[in-house]
Amino acid sequence: MMSDGQLLPNALIPDIPTQIAGYSPQNFDLDYDGAVPASRALSRSLNIPAVRMLQQYRFQRFHSLLKRLGITTFSKPASHYGLSMILGGGGVTLWELSGVYASMARTLLHMEQNDGKYDEDDYHAPGYRLRETRPSQHKLSPYGVLDAAAIWYTFQAMEDVMRPGEEMLWQQFSSSQRVAWKTGTSFGFRDGWAIGVTPQFVVGVWVGNTDGEGRPGLIGVSTAAPVMFEIFRQLRTSGWFDMPSSKMKMIDVCRQSGYRAGQYCEEVDSMLVPAAGLRSAVCPYHQLIHLDPTGQYRVTAACELPEQMQHKSWFVLPPAMEFYYRSKHLYQPLPPFKPGCDNAEEPGHSMELIYPRPNARIYVPLELDGSRGETVFRATHRNREAKIFWHRIIHL
Ligand SMILES: [Zn+2]
User: Fold this and answer.
1) Are 243 and 273 in contact (CB under 8 A)?
2) Considering the entire predicted model, what is its pTM?
3) Residues less than 5 Å from ion ligand 1, measured at CB
4) Which of 103, 180, 218, 225 could share a disulfide with 194, CB 3.0–4.6 Å?
């Protein structure tokens, strides 16, 4: 998505209860952050943000991208995998997946010598024999399968993945060698994976039982990652990928939302981003609000003289994101409306249904005793004192 300008590296992504056409992904810790920067969503391997981003990107496109990157095992049509594709809903081999990381690393390493162009030969399957020379004819193109700057930011985020355990080994390691890495755990704890990449090496580790039997605790980060780090330690890699600055543009970014800065954003950083980021969306979360002279209440022209108003920019998340975000982050909720200014806001702005989503069809099964079962609806309101009324419309 960074390649396309659909996302900036630290843009906030919703991390809230999510149901898409009957599919309800959960994070590993079954928790919600409300909103999380894209880079953190990747380094923490959060499932919900990944699924929501794939929905935006479209799984059909992602399916064909995986093929172009060299994955040959997604043989069924995209609809067979659907959105679960992003969470391991399709099988890959360690060999091919490691090969994709190597291809991405080669793209970054050759950028300079190719004068900022992409070499199609950089994407190839791993081989057992050393390729002593690169082909003499290079097909260079201004566009790559993945944008180099997007790869660079992805590797940056993957370097921040929390390392397993508190043992001395890891601390020693982190100070001496930089590794971009990722782990995975397959459904039913059958396989633990870890793949790491440096400018010199890609290391892929699989841990599991050869008969495919699962075992609780067989989790990539605690089984495969320690082996991967030990291998990197023996390999003694060093250095890091150069920033592909010819593929980047300097833009103003809102520090709080990670989006392109808009007119109401307060803290703005200049940041080099993938060039397509010039087209990315402007911060949707900073808005101008109007307060009474004391700054305690929100007002409108209906209850306050315009010359008495204070105008202030405010960071406002949509109600559902806000509900989960404010329990974990410093967040200043919108001040209440001044008495007499009530109902100045359209309900959609202060209240949001968490479950079900609009137009959802819900199947409420019969219980064992034949009675109709129950379903729990959830809504959130910015004002914690607000009373919410539920109306049931029965179509006869
Ligand atoms: Zn902003």
Assistant:
1) no
2) 0.87
3) 254, 257, 265, 283, 286
4) 225
